[in-house]
Amino acid sequence: DVKVTQSSRYLVKRTGEKVFLECVQDMDHENMFWYRQDPGLGLRLIYFSYDVKMKEKGDIPEGYSVSREKKERFSLILESASTNQTSMYLCASRRSLNRGPGNEQFFGPGTRLTVL
Amino acid sequence: AQTVTQSQPEMSVQEAETVTLSCTYDTSENNYYLFWYKQPPSRQMILVIRQEAYKQQNATENRFSVNFQKAAKSFSLKISDSQLGDTAMYFCAFMGETSYDKVIFGPGTSLSVIP
Description:
The complex is a heterodimer. Chain A is mainly β. Chain A has a domain at about 1-5 and about 30-100: Immunoglobulins (Immunoglobulin-like, Sandwich), CATH 2.60.40.10. Chain A has strands at about 5, 10-15, 20-25, 30-40, 40-50, 55, 65-70, 75-80, 85-95, 105, 110-115. In chain A, the strands form 2 sheets. In chain A, strands 2, 4, 5, 6, 9, 10 and 11 form a 7-stranded mixed sheet that branches. A 4-stranded antiparallel sheet of chain A has the order 1-3-8-7, with no helix packed on it. Chain A starts with a strand and ends with a strand. The model of chain A has no long low-confidence stretch (mean pLDDT about 90). By secondary structure, chain B is mostly beta strands. Chain B has no helices and 12 strands. Chain B has strands at about 5, 10-15, 20, 25, 30-40, 45-50, 60, 65-70, 75-80, 90-95, 105, 110-115. In chain B, strands 2, 5, 6, 10, 11 and 12 form a 6-stranded mixed sheet that branches. Chain B is globular and about 45 Å long.
């Protein structure tokens, strides 16, 4: 089974802090994603990565950056946390689209971040 | 831009009954994929069922089936013989051929199965 893990289930930070959210997958997937989940809005894509050191902006990248130094690890960085970044953050991975479209995404358990 | 709409924020169903969750989407593409994902309380999101737009036959996975109406841009999920473990948030999702890297999710429907 694909396993996607996230470094924390719950996190509380203060406004202005730099926040790192880590995601690790163990199935050698090329593609990895970061979403935020808010009630009534579903999942919104923040950033995604095709491969190591590759990244692409999603729909709501403002205030976030990412890092992918190793294939299995994809980090989301909040450079200066703000209260409007309080949310559930979900990481996902998927095998390369070159190996067939329509592949499912495998999700981590999520990190509920509260910024005070 | 593609959009996905789920018009039922919350639904409930008696155990062993059948329930249908609705989803509509907007796209100008001809080839695409549609998904239903399930997110149980405090648990990881998992794929329930997947439909390829070029296939006319509706997808089925055990108690879960879809009614895919391409012309109407409708993709509903039917859960038969509902079980307590079906209680979850359900998300409809769209992936178009011109943007396979992105999946567009609907706002979700919270389903409660009542004993």
